[in-house]
Amino acid sequence: VPVEFEAALPILRKIEAAGYEAYFVGGSVRDTILQRPIHDVDIATSAYPSEVKGLFARTVDTGIEHGTVMILDHGNGYEVTTFRTESGYQDYRRPDKVTFVRSLKEDLKRRDFTINALALSENGEITDLFGGLDDMKHKIIRAVGDPEQRFNEDALRMMRAVRFASQLDFQIEAQTLSGIYDHSQLLKKIAVERIHTEFVKMMLGTDAPRGLSLMVTSQMYRFVPEFGSHAAAIKQIAEQSFHLQNEVQVWALFTSTFGYDRSQITQFLKRWKTANKIINDVILTTELIDQIKSHSVGNLELYTAGRANVLNAIQVLGTAKSDLIDQYDHLPITNKKQLKVTGGDLIKDGILKPSPKLGQTLTALEKAVVLGQIHNHKAALESAAIALNKD
Ligand code: ATP
Ligand code: MG
What is the ipTM of this complex? Predict the structure, then answer.
C-alpha cells in the first residue's frame, strides 16, 4: 500500500466510524494496481457533503456543488466526494445536474472506463463491478456500459480513452473504439481547456505516436483547434517515433512541422488556451529548431533561446544534437545580469547619461560578449561603450 494511501487511512476510518462508507477511487487505485506512481488520492463516500464537513475540523468547499469537500489534515489535503449519479447531459458536455446517492455501485457506474471504476476499501478490498481488474491485466480500455451512450453523454471521454492508451500503453477495446469512430465530431462541443489537458497528457505518454494515430484514424484531430487544416503534417508526425518531456515540446513539435512563424504560433496557442509563459518558450524553441534545420545556429541564437529551450529543441528534433548543449554551456554569459558592467556603472563613470542610448549600448555590449567579440571585463566593456558612442 503506497504511503499516500497510508496517510489518508485515518480519514477513511473516521468516516466509517460515523456509519458511512468510504473508499479510495479513480486514478490512484488504477495506478497503484499497475504499480505506477500516484498523485492525487481521491476518496468517495456515502456521506453527504454536509455530513463530511460535520466530521472534520478543517474543510474547504472546493467543489461543493458536485459533492467535493477538501479535508485538511497534517498539511495534506484530501478530496472527498459524495457518491453521485449524473444526469441532464446537454450538448454532449458535462452533466448539468448531479444527484447524491448512498450507493457505491451507482457512483462507479457513472465513471468512464472499467479501469477507472474500481474502489479500494480501508481493509484493502477491491470492488470491481465491471471487470476492471481483468481489463487491466489484458491492458484494455473499455467504456463502462454502452460506449455510444457514454460518449454521447460526455464527448471528452473519447480524448481520455486515447490519453490512457498512450499513457498506459493499453489497447482500446473494439466496441469502445467504434464508439469513438462514430462520435469523433462531438469533440467540437467540448471546451478547449478540457481537450487541452487530455491532449497534452496524451502527447507526453509513453506511446504518444499511437495516441496521435488514434486521433487521426478516428478523425478526432479534425475537431481540435487548427489541426484540421494540417492533415498531412499531423499524419506525418503520428508516423514518427518521438518521446516528449513537457508541454513546450508538445506544441513545438506541431508548430515547427506546420512551419508557423511567431505570430502564427501565438494565434494557434491562444486558440488552444495555452498559458503565456508556455507560448513564449514554444516560440523560442520553434525558432531554434528552424535555425538548427537550416544549419545557422550560432552563439547568439543559443543565448536567445536559453538552456531549457535548447534542450527542448534537441528533444523535439529527436536527433543526437547534444553538441549544441556543449556549445551553450561554453557561452561567455547566459544571462544579461552576468554582464560585468551595468547602466549605473556607465552613468557613474560619465560615459552615458540616462537615455534610450544607454539601453541600446547595453544590448550591443551583451551581444558582443555572447559573440566573443569583447571580453566580459568592466574595463573592456567601458571602452567599447565609449567607442560605440563617439560621434
Ligand atoms: P489522472 O491520474 O491523470 O488524474 P484520473 O483517472 O484520476 O487520471 P481524473 O480526471 O483525476 O482522472 O478523474 C478521476 C476519476 O473520475 C477517474 O478515474 C474516473 O473514474 C472519473 N472521471 C473523470 N473524468 C470523467 C469523465 N469525463 N467521465 C466519467 N468519469 C470520469
Ligand atoms: Mg486523478
Answer: 0.99
Cα of 25 from ligand 1 centre, angstroms: 9
Q: What is the mean pLDDT of residues 227-239?
A: 97
The residue among 241, 268, 300 that closes a domain is 241
Confidence of residue 90 (pLDDT cuts 50, 70, 90): low
H, E, C per residue of 222-253: HHCCCHHHHHHHHHHHHHCCCCCCCHHHHHHH
Instruction: Give me the number of domains the chain comprises.
Output: 4
Same domain assignment for residues 169 and 267: no
When computed from its CA atoms, the radius of gyration of the chain, rounded to whole angstroms, is: 27
- Asked if 63 and 100 count as a contact pair (C-beta separation under 8 A), the reply is no
AA letter at 168? L
Instruction: Show the domain range for 43.
Output: 1-130
Q: Quick count: other Cβ atoms within 10 Å of Cβ 295?
A: 6
> How many whole angstroms separate alpha carbon 331 and alpha carbon 335?
10
| Ligand that lies nearest to the alpha carbon of residue 201, given by its number in the listed order | 1
Output the residue whose Cα is nearest ligand 1's atom 25: 112
Dist. CA 27 → ligand 2 center (Å)? 5
Boundary (domain end) residue, out of 331, 356, 374: 331
Q: Whose CA is nearest to atom 27 of ligand 1?
A: 157
- The cell for 51 is 455530513
Residue 2 phi/psi, 5-degree rounding, is -65, 155
Query: Hey, what amino acid is at 305?
Result: A
Residue 248 has pLDDT above 80, yes or no: yes
Q: From residue 207, how far is each of 76, 114, 166, 167, 307 by CA, in Å?
A: 33, 20, 4, 6, 27
Q: What ligand 1 atom has the least distance to the C-alpha of 40? A: 4
Q: Pick the closest to residue 354 from 63, 346, 240 (CA basis).
A: 346
Are the C-beta atoms of 309 and 294 separated by less than 8 Å? no
Task: State the residue for C-alpha cell 472546493.
Answer: 62
Q: What torsion do the CA atoms of 238, 244, 249, 252 make, to the nearest 10 degrees?
A: -20
One domain for residues 202 and 228: yes
